[in-house]
Design brief:
heterodimer, A: Mth169, Chain: A, 28% helix, elongated, B: alpha/beta, Rossmann fold, 9-stranded mixed β-sheet, two-stranded antiparallel ribbon, 5 helices
Amino acid sequence: MAAMRQFDVRVEVLLRAGIADPQGATIERALPALGFAGVTGVRSGKSFRFRVDAADGSVARARATEVADRLLANPVIEESVVTVEPASTP
Amino acid sequence: MAPRVGVVLFPGTNCEHDATLAVGQLGGRADLVWHHETSVAGFDALILPGGFAHGDYLRPGAIARFSPVMGAVAEFAAAGGPVVGICNGFQVLTEAGLLPGALQKNRGLRFLCTTVPVRVERDDTALTTGVPVGTELGLPINHFEGNYTCDARTLALLRDEGRVVLRYADNPNGSLDDIAGVCNEGRNVVGLMPHPERASDRLLGSDDGAVLLTALLRSAGATPAAA
């Protein structure tokens, strides 16, 4: 049996293009009042970090993607980006 | 015999007693169903009431949909049993895939607690059977994530199949197409953001919601389990 390794996973969840993002829009509208001119395209989202035990990177990615698709993001309105890398500390 | 209504209780649900009382006053019999239950046998209809199931962590309904009881709810719905999700219950039903679309934060990012005019669009669903189309009801809303959304294909489907059950007469939250409630293909699963149970008695200021819950009891009486 292959030895298990640990992988650090980062999942970023954002609203799909075309879905209204009232938080992002509100932040964008507030920026000029704080002196930040020329900041556009603000989108709000969520970021999750966790660690996965797996035999290799592709297995870790598959499991992390399943977590993202089944729980962390609602595919009706959100999309997720999964980043996997070997754990930095054991 | 009075129709038996199961009122599903998740940790954080807070409208279960309002729903139970309203059902009882309108001639039904309601019992609470804990979220760890795996059977809803014996019930003629189910209500998923409002509240903050599992604290609304992650997204409203996102954790509740994995509760053991939801398997039984899905089976009951698939067999044609009437299921109504009110507010947070609507959010749970969309997360569980029993109803299409999703509920996102209100346009304007305000928690809304008020009474709004709502129009009945269909008279052939579990919650509106026999209620004349065009009936306008004053119903309480109490939500932050009540802004109904879905993709264009789903919206076209909902319109073509007449599955928009209720519309806001004056859209309070940015909901797509003024949608306040939708149903599934079988018309036995209905979700709505307004709270009919909070307007089920004149003492509460309005009994406009009683017409909907009475329709649900009619639907419940028509299911095989009640026979």
